[in-house]
Amino acid sequence: MTEAYLILGTPGSGRREIVYDLIDGGLPSDQPVNVILTESEADSPFDEQLAALPQVELIDRDANDIAPKPDDGAVVFYISDGSADFRDEIEYFKRWVDAIGAKMHRVIVVVDCALAERSPALAPWYEAQIHFADCVLLNRREGVENRWIREFEQFFHKKHFPCVFEMVKKGHVANPPQLLHPEPRRLSHLFDNLDAIDELELDEEELPDEIIDLNQKGDPYLVRLPSGHREIALPDIREYL
Fold this sequence. Notes:
By secondary structure, this protein is an alpha/beta fold. The chain contains nine helices and seven strands. It has a seven-stranded parallel sheet with strand order 3-2-4-1-5-6-7, sandwiched between helices. Helix 1 (about 15-25) packs parallel to helix 2. The longest helix is centred in the middle third of the chain and has 15 residues, at about 85-100. It is globular, with a radius of gyration of 18 Å.
């Protein structure tokens, strides 16, 4: 079965460099890997290095933003369009995973710390994105004060976000296999099988309100109004890139 990882982050945050490190240091050398890219993003110097790995195939989403079915038995790293609304990307990825019958492993968010520090208005955008994350990788920290990085991380710890935070050092993570471990650490239940709750035959009065709400409405960040707009508005990332 195809195992899939969703990689979120902004253009220039170092996602492809980190994916290279995760593949090179976290997977067997004979494990087939598909890295799915979007044509709307500029090429990266690490595209050549990824393509040079013998087990890796780079796959572009087409003009209609449709990703093809991956190779049988491949591990997939699906790198989102960083300048798009990441919620649209998450919804498309969820439909794609369901359609091909892939096993969803983890959502990895790569944070451009320099961008986040100089753009305080993006705080709710990062909070929303990390709501979906199993792992948060703090990258592009050159020139960013350590105090800011500590406060950024502590904000999520104080809110009891279960995701793992890790510093990226010169394009490398400390333990790639640990980050690729499929154990879910995300706050969102989007990729969970909530339909199984119905099979338990529990009275709704016995269930937490948030679980009932998820079954009825879905993830709060993805809910749309009748107008088509999101119920929770977030900054447009394109205005900060």
